[in-house]
Specification:
The structure holds two protein chains of two kinds.
Chain A lengths: L8 E13 L4 E13 L3 E5 L6 H8 L7 E10 L2 E2 L5 H7 L4 E4 L13 H12 L4 H14 L5 H5 L8 H13 L5 E5 L7 H18 L2 E6 L2 H7 L2 E6 L2 E7 H6 L4 H8 L40 H5 L5 E4 L2 E3 L6
Parallel strand pairs in A: 3-8, 3-9, 6-7, 7-8
Antiparallel strand pairs in A: 1-2, 1-4, 4-5, 9-10, 10-12, 11-12
Chain B lengths: L2 H18 L1 H4 L31 H37 L1 H16 L2 H12 L3 H27 L3 H8 L4 H37 L11 H9 L6 H29 L6
Helix pairs in contact in B: 1-3, 1-10, 3-4, 3-6, 3-8, 3-10, 4-6, 5-6, 6-8, 7-8, 8-9, 8-10, 9-10
Classes of the chains: A alpha/beta, B mainly alpha.
Chain lengths: 327, 267
């Protein structure tokens, strides 16, 4: 699982700033983040609710809708800035090059269309495969994501499937055109643990099979430990720490990551002590931070933290943190 | 499915079928004037009696049904084909497009429907085709309003984002992804609008602005029969009965469809 430095960059996000302009205030959802996605890796993005994870990945295919707006930044894919593409060029990338899997399997499928129709749609649009072969490919995909009797399922409507099956169908839609990048926004939150494990296995298999890069968003650190190659920790629309998976779990450098890891329940721990929590609340995203957004809740804070917002700095090979303090 | 609904469907089908196959069911030419046979009461020879020129009212009612029903159908098809896309586009894009389209619709709605239809026919000249055009224009705003309202609730749903994220164009999202989800209210509106269109066409013909003599539509027959109500009640009664039945059955059917499609009323 070691990250090789010479790996090819498939996507890079540069200084992305996204704001939501509501009637009387501005929500700073994403505040200038930079990261790269390498070929064939699974990049995990963690953070609590409202930390800008979803907004960040929705921006990648320019899916932010008003009142949200991408104020600044570049998203470089295939040496082009996605944010400057016309809507026609953008449609060619969406689904074909970069595919999304949405969070809620219950509402992300069109309730009135057949499963087959929904999968075949993007194959017919993005590839030159004819109708007959598309149907064959669709059946194959339904099979590949682990749903038996694909032929019957092809003609089912979403309400006839269980949540786990719908999630698989969405994965099948995501995979239908062999995308280079698959963005999975909490694909397992709505599912129970056994199904979750199946989906995780499935995606790992598929990653090897199709050599895709995957961005996996979740707030489940335990899940990421088993699946991701590299992890980005987000807080208040910023990247707090970025490291490969072993480094991050064994040697977290940022106070927030440390606190997060301590808050994870340990199944092997028999002592009856209370689960550790992070004191305080996530910050109000409508305010502009002068200092570090984690300041109020940080156990290691010093004076400089409230005056100066720390930039991402390297502490180790392939390990960056946004913190003034060395711990 | 209740008995009222079944009866309505059967009754409506009968009226539609005997109008379509009017030549088969009627034994007289609806335009044929017969001397000395004026104002015969209903009998086994003339089921619905005869009018002031000795024409067979039964035949005329059937032939009139062709024009009236066609007027209703054409008007609704045209107004739905124009109104639904307008409403969908307006609701999907919002902002300035929404304002332009919906304010235009509002200004159409500001006039009482019949008055607006009257003035359109007055401009175009009285004929059954122009009456259909007038009725179509009058019905457009309702379709636009209803489809706009449905798309507003649908477009926020995740499956729409999902469709966009696999690269679907706006056109595809609106008409292929969202429209099937909005079809319920639109379907109900269609059945009500057919009834409304038949009624407006009848009103226009009654006022002499729709179907012109010697052709018959139910409204036109009502108009000419009205003068002879005291001597020949059947002349105005039967076309009036047919209008009533068609409107009534269509309303019952639309009510049933609405209940069927509305998940909150499913028992």
């Amino acid at each position: 699982m070691k990250r090789q430095i010479d790996k090819e960059i498939v996507l890079s996000v540069k200084n992305l700033i996204v704001k939501f302009f509501t009637k009387n205030k501005v929500v700073n959802a994403v505040n200038g983040i930079n990261y790269n996605l390498y070929k064939g890796e699974i990049l995990g993005i963690v953070g609590e609710s409202g930390s800008g994870k979803s907004v960040n990945v929705l921006s990648i295919t320019n899916l932010i809708r008003p009142p949200g707006k991408i104020v600044e930044g570049e998203i470089i894919y295939d040496s082009k800035n996605i944010l400057n593409l016309s809507s026609k060029e953008l449609r060619k990338i969406r689904g074909k090059e970069i595919a999304n899997i949405f969070q809620d399997p219950m509402s992300s499928l069109n309730p009135v269309l057949k499963i087959g129709t929904q999968i075949i749609e993007s194959i017919l649009k993005h590839t030159n495969i004819n109708k007959k072969n598309s149907i064959k490919r669709t059946l194959e995909l339904i099979n590949n994501v682990g749903i038996p009797s694909a032929k019957e399922r092809y003609f089912n409507h979403p309400h006839q499937l269980s949540g786990g099956m719908r999630q698989r169908i969405m994965i099948a839609i995501g995979l239908s055109c062999d995308p280079k990048i698959l963005i999975a926004d909490e694909p397992t939150t709505a599912l129970d643990v056994t199904i979750q494990a199946q989906i995780v296995d499935l995606i790992q298999d598929l990653k090897i099979q199709y050599n895709m890069s995957i961005i996996w968003i979740t707030h489940d650190l335990g899940l990421l430990a088993g699946i991701a190659d590299r992890i980005i920790v987000m807080y208040a629309g910023r990247i707090m720490e970025e490291a490969n998976v072993i480094e991050l779990y064994e040697n977290p450098k940022h106070p927030y990551t440390k606190a997060l890891l301590q808050s994870t329940p340990d199944l092997n721990d028999d002592s009856e002590k209370k689960l550790h929590t992070i004191e305080g609340y996530p910050p109000d995203m409508t305010q502009e931070f002068v200092g570090c957004p984690f300041f109020d809740r940080c156990l290691y804070k010093e004076n400089i933290c409230n005056q100066n917002n720390p930039d991402l700095r390297q502490v180790n090979t392939a390990h960056n943190i946004a913190c003034h303090i060395d711990i | 499915m209740n008995i009222k609904f079944k009866l309505s469907i059967i009754l409506l089908l009968i009226i539609v079928l005997i109008s379509i196959f009017a030549p088969v069911f009627s034994n007289y030419n609806p335009l044929e004037i017969q001397k000395g046979k004026q104002f015969l009461p209903p009998s086994m020879i003339h089921y619905f009696g005869t009018d002031e020129f000795g024409r067979d009212v039964f035949s005329r009612t059937l032939y009139a049904g062709r024009i009236s029903l066609l007027a209703g159908l054409v008007a609704v098809i045209v107004s739905a084909l124009v109104g639904v896309p307008l409403g969908l586009i307006s609701g999907y894009y919002g902002k300035i497009i929404d304002t332009c389209i919906m304010r235009t619709m509002d200004s159409l709605l500001a006039f009482p429907a019949l008055l607006l239809a009257l003035s359109i026919v007055a401009v175009l000249g009285p004929s059954s085709l122009n009456a259909m055009i007038a009725v179509s224009i009058v019905s457009i705003p309702n379709f636009a309003r209803i489809s706009r309202a449905s798309i507003l609730t649908q477009k926020e749903k995740d499956y729409v984002d999902a469709a966009v994220s696999i690269g679907a164009s706006d056109k595809r999202v609106i008409f292929f992804t969202i429209l099937p989800n909005c079809i319920g209210p639109i379907l109900v509106q269609i059945t009500i609008a057919v009834a409304f269109a038949i009624l407006v066409e009848a009103a226009l013909s009654f006022l002499g602005l729709g179907t012109q003599p010697p052709d018959a539509s139910w409204g036109a027959m009502l108009f000419s029969g009205r003068g002879y109500l005291r001597v020949a009640w059947w002349y105005a009664f039967f076309p009036g009965l047919f209008i009533t039945l068609v409107i009534l059955t269509l309303n019952i059917i639309s009510e049933e469809i609405r209940d069927k499609l509305d998940p909150t009323t499913v028992t």
